[in-house]
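Reopening this one. Same input as before:
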Amino acid sequence: MWPPADPEPDRASDGPQTQNLRALLPTREFLCSRKGRLLLGESVLSFIIFICYMASSAAPFLTVPLLMFLLALAFLFGYFLKINEKFSGMCWPLSDFLRCVIGAIIYFAISIAAVSKYSDGAAKAAGIFGFIATIVYAIDFYGIFNDLSKFLKQGNSANDAEAEKSEEEDSNSDSD
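Same output, byte for byte:
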């Protein structure tokens, strides 16, 4: 009978190895979030572009999608496993923003080169997917930029309020 009566399998009956492997997979909640969808899209597009460049004569462009694929996976697992909260040694939003800006610019440049310079179908397909990846990376860095600007505006308003409060206290203590 389709669909099954119990859509969620009983995870308690799974072995410990299966449960350990499931801990490394992103949850549905994260993958349905805006950031999860963008990172997953960036990973999939980068992998498709990598495969297309492997099959084409445009071999010089092979390393860019591979590196962007690995970086997108690293950030995907970094955000999913909340490494960004545990490891505060680097500024995650800024690093993610720079990754997206660089990815969008480089994908745009190599897509133009692949479409205009190479005549085989795989290079043309890689160029088209590269343009799509450019749009996805641009949407991601636009979202990160908006989040960072809101955060900085809130931080500045809190700092301004503290500065005004300290100035009022200083002026009250001067009048005494």
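So the earlier flakiness isn't reproducible anymore. For the record, The mean pLDDT is 81.
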